Amino acid sequence: MTRAGDLIYLDNAATSFPKPKSVVEAVQHAMLQLAAAGRGSHRLAEQADRVVAETREQLGRLFLVDSSRFIFCQSGTDALNLVLLGYLNPGDHVVVTQAGHNSVLRPIHDLVVNRQLKVSCVSCDELGQVQAEDIMGEVKDETRLVILTHVSNVTGAIEPVEEIARILGTHRAALLVDASQSAGHLPLDLGQLPIDFLATSGHKGLLGPLGTGVAYIREGLENEVPPLRYGGTGSSSDEAIQPNDMPTKYEAGNLNVPAIAGLGAGLRYLEENGLDSIRTFQAQWSSKLAERLSILPGVQLKSPTAAEAHVGPTSFTVDGFDSREFSAILDGSFGLQLRAGFHCAAEIHKALETEKTGGTVRVSPGPMTTEHALDRLVEAMKSILGV
Ligand SMILES: Cc1ncc(COP(=O)(O)O)c(C=O)c1O
After folding, report:
1. Less Cβ crowding at N or C end of the chain, within 10 Å?
2. What is the pLDDT of residues 139-164, one digit of tens each?
3. Is 103 in the pocket of ligand 1 (CB under 6 A)?
4. What pTM was estimated for this model as a whole?
5. 180 Cβ below 6 A of ligand 1
6. 364 C-alpha to ligand 1 centroid (Å)
7. Which atom of ligand 1 is nearest to the CA of 80?
């Protein structure tokens, strides 16, 4: 199931591929059978409304919290921008980590330049791991937001989100979790944990189509986050002012109903198969990968290997090769689709010491990745290394 023709896809950290058949069917059905959501009281519009509402309810079930708190976005980046640009005020202090994605670090950089934001960046170790005490060491009385990357999209290292959430629960600083690389892999109980904001892609662990993302805003905090976009919501159309109810407030403009239908099918797949069993399967795959790569000469693993510290992508470098050159050989000569480079996360490579190797080569299995794919990768690497 990992094959597209004779190509083998091993970059589920970029997008899950192939998608479950049910996701493809849901998108197709929506394209053929559903009209615009929230735009009319005829049957086709009402059916679209139902699909959108069901997908939202599934998000509520996955994260164990009221579904009206979830906002459909175009991507994880879109969701992060909604929170960061909306919540942060001139002069605020925030804490980020070195493992953060550019979709956190670039909006923050812009806010530093244009809103005089003050930033503390917590270092990670040589495998992308960040310690809770180092994060808390940067939280001050005036800190307004702590932004954690639940799982690094470069090394798969897990940040101590639950621990920090519990500690920050009694602090005035809010917590934003970038779950783009963890959603669908790790459970997160938003009903229990004091997490204020969450942003995630829909096209990776949640198995939805590209062009989907989700933002979560804890009850009450919507009063401190203005919308990124104003416009038609399909409701209160005779009023000049944008509706203030959740999630309509943030969803001006037509929703991408086919993509949301696909995301709903992805979430159903997760519900039916269970996060735990998907994680166990992927952890076993990654553990065999690490074991087999670590004995190859010149291969340097750049990811934690302990199952409790890692999920998803495994990064490595190969002595004597630029990472992008190595992945080009894997593709050109062996049909293996892996991403190499900096993976839109510039800072972490300073800690990994992978700036000089052109970043890392990244392998990331999905729920449908086969053992055969692992064998093909290891054989290809042995062939390139001449062992
Ligand atoms: C950790 C992390 N944050 C944010 C993003 C951005 O998400 P999107 O591509 O959905 O905009 C990604 C995507 O690779 C990611 O891995």
Report:
1. C
2. 999 999 999 999 999 999 999 999 99
3. yes
4. 0.97
5. yes
6. 14
7. 4
